[in-house]
Design goal:
The protein is mainly alpha-helical. It folds into 2 domains: 387 residues, Na+/H+ antiporter like fold, CATH 1.20.1530; 140 residues, 3-Layer(aba) Sandwich (Rossmann fold), CATH 3.40.50.720. Helix 5 runs antiparallel to helix 13.
Length: 549
């Protein structure tokens, strides 16, 4: 009988991993988060909507419990307490408003509309749907090179603070059914105490052990995993919960110089168990009625409105203008995978019903599918609403003091910097405007003698606004790989259409690009040819000098 159970367990795990593998490839092709693929895999093989290939969800859930511990450990590794401490006043204001203000506003709306929900269920939904997926957002922002923009920094700062608030929520979560002040304070102090002890243990003992055996990959993996389960076990003994212990173990190591190394080396093991955790969530999904689907869409709409209201409302107080905060609110759209962890634990502690977990799960899946498109086109969305509501008139990021420009530079990098410096040396009175999406460059460009204006190259209307500058020369110092949402060819056609009177100069690094740009009527500077010519000239000079000597 035991052998049959073991074989059934291994078969179920095998089916889960095989289907997850196929779905991961498919999701990657569609440029969707892999997590969605894992959840859909569980739905496909599960008894609810799928084919029923895995009918006993407890088999997978047993393994997925370990996956949950690994997931929280990795989430903890990505929370840098130093970054939280260094967070600017603006980020702190936005974070408290978005998390606490947003959760409270969400709670009030739900209590008014969905009166059948218990107070505890409403608290869970309000908090969980107010958390944002760090995994999805950071990846997309990195791909778009927007992590260093004002909106990007606000977004990442809020994500870090959200993770901190989630830790605080988890520290109290176990005692929600018995909310005595003494128990809550005991749970909180145990959490803080365990974090303090874990941090110092890592700092003075664990880091030295890892350093001593850093060349032995197997031993580093074993030490990190052992430490994770040790802190989990201690947390469970203290009554904090082993899942919270795994998170604390991760947070305590997050400030270690070996964090990236540990993450890299245990990622393969983590991925196996975490995959099963998300598959188990899909297995639990029953047949979805239209009512549940409509309710999920409704909750997602409320979540988006609450995010906008609690973030954009501060544009006057923070003196940032509407655009950075509007884009930050769009970036915060995808519901966090952390919400699934919290609701799964809430079900485990019998705080909420399985229906609540399913509701949050469906809402998270829908948001994850929609969010890549929203974040990739966040600037275009802002431009659309700015035309409707006249945001542009309230934000001087869209305008320069110059009525005309001699030279318009599209994008700022080291090439643009050298161009501005050298042009200003030769012709100081030259009016140079740099059109760029990163407001962090504004002060630098001003210091060089130029002016900065916000522009999204992928949006025709955004480029069209620059027509008033009537530039004599337009320079694109960015090579193909750094253009997001458009291509040099599309940009060349747009520029020729908007600025038929201007001389357009593109920088490229390949002969094929040079030929294509020349065909489109654009002047070209091939930096590969210039660089190689300089290297060849220097090498030939050195060889001749050696022969002479």
């Amino acid at each position: 009988m035991e052998n049959t159970s073991v074989i059934k367990l291994l078969t179920d795990i095998a089916i889960s991993i095989i289907i997850s593998g196929f779905m991961a490839v498919f999701m990657n092709y569609l440029k969707q988060p892999l997590i969605i693929g894992y959840i859909i895999s569980g739905i496909i093989i599960g008894p609810g909507i799928g084919f029923g290939w895995v009918s006993d969800a407890t088999n997978i859930e047993t393994i997925s419990e370990i996956g949950l511990i690994f997931l929280l450990f990795i989430i903890g590794l990505e929370i840098n307490l130093r970054d939280v401490i260094k967070s600017s006043k603006k980020i702190l204001i936005l974070s408290f408003s978005q998390v606490f203000g947003g959760s409270l506003l969400f709670f009030i709306i739900l209590r008014f509309i969905l009166k059948d929900l218990s107070i505890l269920q409403t608290i869970y939904i309000s908090f969980c749907l107010n958390l944002t997926s760090t995994l999805i957002v950071v990846k997309i922002l990195k791909d778009k090179f927007e992590t260093q923009t004002i909106a990007g920094k606000f977004t990442i700062g809020i994500l870090i603070m959200q993770d901190l608030f989630a830790i605080i929520f988890l520290s109290f979560q176990k005692n929600f059914l018995n909310p005595q002040i003494s128990l809550l304070l005991k749970s909180y102090f145990y959490t803080i105490g365990l974090l303090f002890v874990s941090y110092n243990f890592q700092r003075f003992i664990l880091s030295k052990i890892i350093h001593s055996y850093s060349k032995n990959t197997e031993l580093v993996i074993l030490i990190a995993i052992s430490y994770c389960f040790l802190v989990s076990m201690v947390a469970d003994i203290l009554g904090v919960s082993k899942d919270m212990g795994a998170l604390i173990a991760g947070v305590s190591i997050a400030n270690s110089p070996y964090t990236e190394e540990i993450v890299a080396r245990i990622s393969s093991i983590r991925d196996f168990f975490v995959t099963l955790f998300f598959v188990s969530l899909g297995l639990k999904l029953p047949s979805i009625s239209y009512n549940i689907l409509l309710l999920s869409l409704f909750l997602l709409l409320i979540s988006a409105i609450v995010r906008f209201f609690t973030v954009v409302i501060y544009h006057r107080i923070l003196e940032t203008g509407i655009r950075p905060l509007f884009i930050t609110a769009i970036n915060l759209f995808p519901i966090s995978e952390f919400s699934l962890v919290i609701t799964s634990l809430g079900l485990k502690y019998m705080h909420i019903l399985e229906d609540t977990v399913i509701l949050v799960l469906i809402t998270m899946i829908i948001s994850s599918i929609i969010s890549p498109y929203l974040i990739n086109y966040n600037n275009s969305i802002f431009m659309f609403f700015s035309r409707i509501f006249g945001f542009e008139n309230k934000n001087d990021d869209f305008y320069t003091k110059s009525e005309q420009a001699d030279v318009l530079i599209l994008g700022y990098n080291m090439i643009a910097r050298e161009v501005i410096l050298n042009l200003k040396k030769k012709m100081e009175s030259l009016k140079i405007v740099v059109a760029d999406f990163n407001a962090e460059n504004k002060k630098v460009i001003k210091g060089l003698g130029g002016e900065w204006i916000y522009t999204d190259f992928s949006v025709y209307d955004s480029l069209k606004r620059l027509d008033k500058l009537k530039p004599r020369i337009i320079i694109l110092p960015l090579i193909r790989v750094f253009l997001k949402g458009t291509t040099p060819e599309k940009l060349a056609l747009s520029l020729k259409s908007i600025f038929p009177y201007s001389v357009i100069i593109f920088v490229c690094e390949s002969d094929s690009d040079e030929e294509e740009f020349l065909r489109l009527g654009v002047k070209v500077v091939n930096i590969s040819r210039l660089t190689s010519a300089k290297i060849v000239r220097d090498v030939v000079g050195l060889i001749k000098k050696e022969k002479t000597n």
